[in-house]
Specification:
The complex is a heterodimer.
Chain A: H1 3-25, H2 31-52, E1 60-66, H3 72-80, E2 98-101, E3 120-122, E4 134-139, E5 156-160, H4 169-182, E6 185-191, H5 198-209, E7 213-219, H6 226-238, E8 253-257, H7 262-266, H8 273-286, H9 290-345, H10 353-364, H11 371-396, H12 406-428, H13 433-481, H14 484-509, H15 518-567, H16 575-612
Parallel strand pairs in A: 1-5, 1-6, 2-4, 3-4, 6-7, 7-8
Antiparallel strand pairs in A: 2-5
Chain B: H1 25-45, H2 54-74, E1 81-86, H3 93-101, E2 119-123, H4 133-136, E3 139-143, E4 151-155, H5 164-173, E5 179-184, H6 192-201, E6 206-211, H7 214-217, H8 226-236, E7 244-246, H9 249-258, H10 277-287, H11 290-314, H12 321-350, H13 354-366, H14 371-384, H15 386-393, H16 416-449, H17 454-467, H18 470-489, H19 493-528, H20 534-558, H21 563-586, H22 588-621
Helix pairs in contact in B: 1-2, 1-22, 2-11, 3-9, 11-22, 12-16, 12-21, 12-22, 13-14, 14-19, 16-17, 16-18, 18-21, 19-20
The chains are: A alpha/beta, B mainly alpha.
Chain lengths: ~625, ~625
């Protein structure tokens, strides 16, 4: 992948997660998912993005997080070895993150687009309680004992983060998430009062899911209580954490930092050293090997994003369920539509046009050319029988039930289809925003569009049905016309039968008497026979035509309209359309990114292993 | 640096002289509250039409419970004041209670969360069954301190730990509290969970605040001190001068435990500056005198009533009368259209029976003719409509068997009812059943456009559509046929005149012609002696016959009873009747629903009026007492 492609994919993915997050926030009871999605987009921007840009393995980012008043700033001071962070008795004082970079040569700062998302860097040293989307970067002062040894965390950036428990935290939770996502190592601070609180524990869960390396610091207890408290913390908080595959992240170390005296607080490197050393040791333990730490962060971030797929489905589940309900309503209404067409129109429809084709078919059976005269003569002979038959028939057969016109039936059925959808949408509009959206856009958008589509489809349908009718009639005719052998044998057969009857009657009843009346009767019967055959054929054609007509209605009107209606809520820039788009796009982008990240990871692993083996694994001093 | 004076509670002044003897305010309230509770439950049980969301119902049921609870707690000589501790785990609620009790009555420990079962601390004179049922299940600790006689202190589980059952327990206890002692610590005074609960409850209960572990707040660091920060937040919430006690309960508890003799324990040494545990104790013991307790109780009732009023306002159904009118107008138009199409369908089903209908009309028409004309018409009708008789006599079931609708007799035996029944059934089976569901959808959409809540109409309209059976339809067809028949056989206006004169002529002329012809032949025979030949004799029959035929033709031309002519008239009549039938079925629904909703609305209004009445009574009787700082604005 080209670098521009990376950037595009990263920002695309981050935006998609962001959109999903907004989508969650709009729905009640989905706050947890929203936070997870926020973390996902932050991981994309702050971990995957810089990695693909070729960010060096150092500096590592170390985020100090925890509930209000637990002493995050104190822990920062202990990590830094000097009082650098503003500690304040006010709970929830820190409201934006601050990065402390170690003294010495300046470290490369990640510069990829979207890094830390909405936060922008300020350099005018605002107080820590400035409640804005900003972050500051401060340089640690050189150590008093400079020269002897470099700073123990010389290639780490230490982030002092805001809390997540106070009532103001709602505003700055996102800032915390940005930095937590960026971090390679999390220092989770919990006090003796807070360590079993629900809100920070949930946050810890999230970080474990994201595969962050974590060091827990328990603060403020009496030194004597420390072992018992740590044990209780492991039991109550760490044990119920979600399980993770071995090797993915190192086990969580718990470091005590008991209630400090003012002196210890103010001199972490000196008076507080006995607490500082174990802390540094544990922190270094999780970021020891040079490239590994960053690669672990990237791999775990990728794994989290992949596993977030389930969460994505959760986000969409209610929407998709409602869309399914809408589909069900549409197709139920479609069935009604067809049913009405069948019952109100098709069963009563006779296709009168076919009767003319039946007449033409009878015509075909008459002799051509000069034989016409003979046929006419026979026709005269048949007349009395036919007159008698027709009048009897007229007496006995009732006229047909009048059906409504086809257009009326179809239009009204369609209208009732729409009405049903609208009534359903209105009824459900309090259930889910999707229905509400449909209901509000129904009158103005859906109904007119649907009617236009219906009108267009109806025109095609009308043309096609005329064609079909004519074609059905024509096939009746052409089947005989195109086949002269059959036609002439039929004609000849009929004429031969007539001739045979006339000759037979004359021969057997000679001399001529009233029995000659058998001639018209016999001739009429042959004709009747032919008519029955033709009628059977036409009746078959009629039935076929009926089936064809129904299929035609389904193909030109029912199915296209149903499909269009089914998809309609997901079109026209609605959130559902966007949702479907995002759900399609996220796994795709993720796969692309995964591929190039894996390539890069394997490429990075080979040379490092070769080059690094003779050298010490890290530039960090190995002494504690 | 220490500016606690501005907000610290002033020591309680000596109890003010007792007010002039008044009937006990709180006891009188109890029956009123019971009455309100009964009515509220009645209201909830009788809600049938306008929908209540589950949330609303749950809230109102909770309020009804609160009413009952308040009524019970007030219906005694000395009402008990429940002071409940609220706060996150580890802020020292149990330690605070222990310090107040002077002994470790509640478990306090460094592991979190500690308290899982609430502890109730009350005077020994109070019988357990006077406590609220929810409290009786807690750990009960009795004491003999007269100053706390009317007060019940409750230590509660936390509201923020990982053990969510603790939070549930706490939330079930909270409604019992008269005064909530919101306990915070340096870490937790700002926490979202407690703060949101406070904001949600502050309109309903009295609040006092304790900042425990006060020693941890004094770090000597620069910046806003937690107590000032908290006071600022409370001010923003409308608590101008809240009661905030800064305490270090642990120290006091230790001091009390170390003290072995009688009398109050001495204050612990090296207390941090501004520590106010004694003030807290004093406020609980003396500051909350009988007067204050009554006022807090009364205020609690007042707030409960305000809350009730607001909650009931939200379930007050809207007034739908004008919407109902608009819906009716819209429905009227839709129903007329529908009736027109239905008439089309029904007339279409009558099409196969046109001969029978014509026959029926002819038979009806010919009854007015008598004598020769009558006999002639009877004969010709029978001949002309032989088919309609024949058709039914012959076993030709194949010919539209189902549509024939059983035996349809001709002439006098023609069974109109059965025939029409058959037609209506056919029409329903083919078309009308489906149309009626479609109609319901149409009507509902119409109603929604006129602003009538759809949910209210859906059920009754569908029910009406199901009830809409074919009796109405059949009746409409019969009526329409009868009306057309009446118009055809007894026309009015010039047609009536024409008909009457034609009938008169037709009844007289043939006989006159017969008599005249006979007279003419006799005249010739007797006067001139002409013996009539066969032709002359035949004239006696032929001339009247010609007259009859001419008359018949005239009648047929001027007053036709052919199907195409009747059809149109029949359609119009049928349309009218069907419209009337449909309107009878559907048009009443919006009004009925609106009326039912209106009744519910009145019920709610009556209830609201009573709540208001009780509230006003309470305000009038409210006494001034030192409780203002327990409530925000």
């Amino acid at each position: 992948m080209e670098p521009t492609h990376h950037r595009l994919a990263i920002s695309q993915l981050a935006n998609d997660f962001h959109w999903l997050e907004d989508h969650c926030r709009r729905q009640p009871g989905m706050d947890a998912q929203a936070v997870g999605l926020r973390l996902a987009s932050a991981l994309t921007r702050n971990v995957l993005g810089p990695f693909l840009e070729g960010q060096p393995a150092r500096p590592l980012h170390l985020a100090v997080v925890g509930g209000a008043g637990t002493g995050k700033s104190t822990v920062v001071n202990f990590l830094a070895g000097a009082v650098v962070a503003e500690t304040n008795p006010q709970a929830g004082y820190t409201r934006h993150p601050t990065a402390f970079v170690p003294p010495g040569p300046s470290l490369p700062w990640p510069s990829s687009i979207g890094f830390l998302g909405p936060l922008h860097r300020v350099s005018d040293n605002p107080p820590a309680n400035t409640d804005q989307d900003i972050y500051q970067v401060k340089r640690l002062p050189p150590q008093p004992t400079a020269g002897e040894a470099p700073h123990p965390l010389a290639d780490c950036v230490i982030w002092d983060c805001p809390d997540m428990t106070t009532w103001a935290a709602e505003n700055y939770e996102n800032r915390l998430l940005e930095v937590a996502a960026l971090a390679d190592v999390i220092v989770y601070v919990a006090s003796d009062e807070r360590y079993n609180d629900a809100v920070p524990t949930q946050f810890l869960h999230l970080l474990v899911n994201a595969g962050k390396a974590i060091v827990a610091v328990l603060t403020k207890m009496r030194p004597a209580d420390a072992p018992a408290l740590i044990e209780h913390f492991r039991q109550e908080v760490l044990r119920p954490l979600p399980p993770r595959p071995a090797g993915m992240i190192p086990p969580i170390a718990v470091v005590p930092l008991p209630q400090l005296t003012a002196e210890q607080r103010h001199d972490p490197g000196g008076a507080g050293a006995k607490y500082r050393e174990p802390l540094l040791q544990h922190v270094r333990a999780v970021c020891e090997v040079d490239e590994e730490t960053r690669q672990r962060t990237v791999r775990n971030a990728l794994r989290y994003l992949n596993s977030a797929g389930e969460g994505l489905l959760n986000v969409a589940r209610s929407d998709l369920a409602q869309l399914d309900a809408w589909k069900a309503v549409v197709s139920a209404a479609q069935r009604d539509f067809h049913e009405r067409y069948r019952r109100e129109f098709l069963t009563g429809e006779r296709f009168r046009r076919l009767d003319t084709y039946a007449e033409r078919l009878m015509d075909l059976l008459e002799l051509p050319g000069a034989g016409r005269i003979l046929s006419h003569m026979l026709g005269v002979l048949r007349w009395p029988y036919r007159w008698l038959r027709d009048s009897l028939y007229g007496l006995l057969v009732r006229p047909e039930v009048l059906s409504l016109r086809e257009k009326t039936v179809v239009e009204e059925s369609f209208q009732s289809w729409l009405d049903r959808l609208q009534a359903e949408a209105l009824r459900n509009s309090s259930v889910h925003p999707l229905w509400k959206q449909i209901a509000t856009r129904f009158e103005g958008e859906l109904a007119p569009q649907a009617r236009d589509r219906f009108a267009a489809a109806w025109r095609t349908f009308e043309l096609k049905e005329m064609d079909e009718l004519e074609a059905a009639g024509q096939t009746l005719i052409t089947r005989w016309e195109k086949n002269p052998v059959v036609l002439s044998s039929l004609r000849g057969g009929k004429f031969a039968l007539d001739a045979a009857i006339i000759a037979g009657v004359i021969y057997f009843t000679w001399p001529p008497g009233w029995l000659l009346l058998l001639i018209p009767v016999g001739v009429a019967l042959t004709h009747q026979l032919a008519e029955l055959v033709v009628r059977g054929l036409v009746e078959q054609a009629r039935q076929r035509l009926r089936n064809q007509r129904e299929a035609l209605l389904t193909a030109t009107l029912g199915t296209p309209l149903a499909e269009w209606l089914t998809q309609w809520p997901a079109t026209g820039g609605t959130s559902l359309e966007k949702l479907q788009q995002v759900l399609r796009r996220v796994p795709e982008t993720l796969r692309q990114l995964e591929q190039s990240i894996t390539e890069r990871l394997t490429a990075a692993a080979e040379p490092t292993r070769l080059a690094a083996s003779p050298l010490p694994p890290s530039s960090l001093p190995q002494t504690a | 640096m220490n500016d606690t004076t501005s907000s610290s509670p002033t020591p309680a002044s000596p109890p003010p002289p007792g007010p002039p003897e008044e009937p006990p305010l709180l006891r009188t309230l109890a029956p009123l509250l019971r009455g309100l509770e009964r009515q509220l439950r009645h209201l909830l049980d009788n809600r049938r039409h306008y929908p209540l969301t589950l949330l609303q119902r749950a809230e109102l049921e909770g309020l009804a419970d609160d009413l009952r609870r308040q009524a019970e707690s007030l219906d005694v000589d000395k009402p008990l004041l429940v002071v409940m501790l609220m706060g996150g785990t580890g802020v020292g609620k149990s330690t605070l209670l222990n310090a107040l009790a002077g002994a470790p009555i509640a478990t306090a420990s460094f592991t979190r969360p500690t308290t899982r079962d609430p502890v109730v601390y009350f005077h020994q004179s109070v019988k357990t069954d006077r406590l609220d049922p929810a409290l009786r299940l807690c750990r009960l600790v009795q004491h003999d301190r007269a100053a706390l006689e009317q007060k019940v202190l409750v230590d509660t589980p936390d509201l923020d730990s990982n053990d969510l059952t603790n939070r549930e327990k706490f939330l079930t206890l909270l409604p019992i509290a008269d005064i909530v002692l919101y306990v915070g610590s340096q870490e937790k005074y700002h926490d979202r969970l407690g703060w949101e609960l406070f904001k949600q409850q502050r309109q309903r209960r009295a609040f006092a605040f304790v900042l425990n572990k006060w020693d941890r707040c004094l770090t000597g660091e620069s910046g806003l001190r937690p107590d000032d920060d908290w006071l600022r937040d409370l001010k923003a919430e409308g608590f101008q001068n809240p009661l905030l006690f800064r305490t270090s309960a642990q120290r006091w508890l230790e001091a009390a435990q170390n003290h072995s003799g009688d009398g109050p324990p001495p204050p612990p040494p090296d207390l941090p500056e501004g520590e106010q545990f004694p003030q807290l104790r004093q406020w609980l013991e003396l500051g909350l005198s009988r007067l204050e307790i009554e006022a807090v109780k009364a205020r609690g009732v007042g707030q409960l009533l305000t809350h009730l009023q607001q909650a009931v306002e939200t379930i007050r159904p809207p007034d739908l009368t004008s919407e109902a009118q608009r819906v009716k107008a819209a429905w009227h138009a839709s129903l007329i259209d529908e009736a027109d199409v239905q008439a089309d369908v029904l007339v279409g089903t009558l099409e196969p029976y046109q001969t029978e209908v014509e026959h029926h009309f002819s038979v009806e028409g010919q009854t007015q003719f008598r004598g020769l004309m009558g006999a002639y018409l009877k004969l010709t009708t029978r001949l002309r409509y032989a088919s309609s008789t024949l058709r039914d006599r012959l076993p030709l079931t194949g010919l539209k068997g189902r549509l024939r609708g059983g035996r349809i007799e001709t002439s006098a035996q023609w069974n109109l009812g059965e025939f029409v029944h058959a037609c209506a059934r056919t029409a329903r089976e083919r078309v009308l059943d489906q149309r009626s569901t479609a109609l319901v959808h149409r009507l509902l959409v119409d109603a929604d456009m006129k602003g009538f809540p759809l949910g209210l109409l859906t059920e009754p309209t569908h029910a009406a559509a199901r009830r809409d059976d074919h009796e109405d339809l059949t009746q409409a067809v019969i009526d329409a046929l009868a009306e057309v028949e009446r118009q055809a056989t007894h026309p009015t206006g010039w047609r009536g005149l024409l008909r009457r004169s034609l009938t008169l002529l037709a009844n007289i002329l043939p006989e006159m012609a017969l008599v005249a012809t006979a007279a003419w032949i006799l005249w010739n025979f007797f006067i001139y002696g002409d013996i009539p030949d066969f032709f002359r004799m035949a004239l006696i029959v032929l001339i009247p016959l010609v007259v009859i035929i001419v008359m018949h033709l005239l009648v047929a031309m001027l007053l036709p009873v052919r199907w195409p002519a009747i059809r149109h008239q029949f359609h119009a009549e049928l349309g009218q009747r069907l419209a009337a039938a449909l309107e009878r079925i559907y048009l009443a629904i919006p009004d009925q629903v609106a009326e039912a909703i209106g009744q519910e609305r009145q019920q709610v209004d009556r209830f609201l009026a009573e709540v208001k009445q009780v509230q006003e009574w309470l305000t009038r009787r409210q006494q001034t007492a030192r409780i203002a700082e327990l409530y925000g604005k």
